[in-house]
Write a structure and sequence with these properties.
It is a single chain. The chain is an alpha+beta fold and 299 residues long. The chain contains eight helices and twelve strands. The strands form three sheets. It has a five-stranded antiparallel sheet. A five-stranded mixed sheet has the order 5-8-9-7-6, covered by helices on one side. It has a two-stranded antiparallel ribbon with strand order 11-12.
């Protein structure tokens, strides 16, 4: 028997956020293409960056939620969410909790961590929980085995509980093995460590802030800004201050290349090389900040 999670409200919220981000992206691009470049352009760039980073997340979560489902048969409970798959043999399940059988603190924790998406966490008592849930309300079900627990949110809660009760009472001659599959994604592979997460966040935010700074200070810069200097440190070459914007642009291109090389290194299980490449990207961003601040001294 197939069941779907509660998803109408979650999909509506995701679609609303997606349309909002599309509007922010459109307005931001329109402002960035306009003149003059000033602090408003910096704000527009921030909106564009938020939209570009948020839209893939919203799209991925919406698709995963739309395709999510639970299947019950006489042998196992099968959970699908996006590219993730979990097969839980029925004879491994020791408890099923609904309603008041789920402690309020557990319900709050699931609601805070799942957010209509996949989540994995450990409760205070050491119990490991996998959330395949789109709601932590009245439809929440907690399936407990000797190895952990799974949080579900079937739209047809009475039907799910009834089917589970009937199928659990049937002794199947055929046994299935437990299965836990997680689709390999760029984020899971490359950003699987704390260092990688910090390096990626620091580098991306650093490049974004650098670009925003250069956009905001454009009106205060002289029309002919020094870009080259002689041996004595005297400005020798002048140009439009807008050329400064090329520095973070080149930095972002180099960072994207670093991420690609890092991902290839992770695929080859060469994590040292991957983290070295990401470290180079972070140091390049620091160098760009030093160079830009040095150039701005001559504004």
């Amino acid at each position: 028997m197939d069941f779907t999670p509660v998803r109408a409200r979650a999909l509506a919220i995701h679609l609303s956020v997606g349309f909002g981000l599309c509007a922010v992206l459109g307005v931001g691009l329109w402002r960035l293409l306009g003149v003059p470049l000033n602090w408003q352009s910096a704000g527009a760039l921030l909106g564009v960056a938020v939209a570009i980073s948020g839209l893939p997340v919203i799209a991925t979560r919406s698709i995963a939620l739309a395709r999510a489902g639970y299947r019950l048969d006489s042998q196992a409970l099968t959970l699908r969410w996006g590219g993730d798959l979990e097969v839980v043999p029925l004879d491994h399940i020791v408890e099923l909790h609904t309603g008041g059988g789920i402690a309020p603190r557990v319900r709050r924790r699931i609601g805070a961590r799942s957010g209509w998406s996949r989540a994995r966490f450990t409760l205070e008592d050491g119990q490991r929980v996998e959330a395949f849930a789109s709601s932590s309300g009245s439809n929440l079900v907690l399936i407990v085995t000797s190895h952990g627990a799974w949080a579900l949110s079937p739209a047809d809660l009475p039907g799910f509980v009834d089917a589970f009760s009937r199928l659990s009472a049937v002794i199947s001659a055929e046994k299935v093995e437990a299965l836990s599959y997680r689709r390999r994604t760029f984020a899971r592979e490359l950003l699987g460590s704390r260092f990688a997460q910090v390096a990626a966040a620091a580098t991306s935010i650093g490049l974004l802030l650098l670009m925003m700074l250069l956009l905001a200070v454009q009106p205060a810069l002289v029309s002919e800004h020094p870009f080259t200097f002689d041996a004595a440190g005297v400005p020798a070459g002048l140009g439009s201050p807008a050329r400064l914007l090329l520095l973070p642009v080149f930095g972002m291109m180099a960072w994207l290349l670093d991420l690609g090389l890092g991902w290839l290194a992770v695929r080859r299980h060469d994590y040292v090389a991957a983290y070295m490449v990401m470290g180079v990207g972070l140091m390049t961003t620091v160098g760009l900040w030093i160079g830009v601040l040095t150039l701005l001294r001559f504004a």
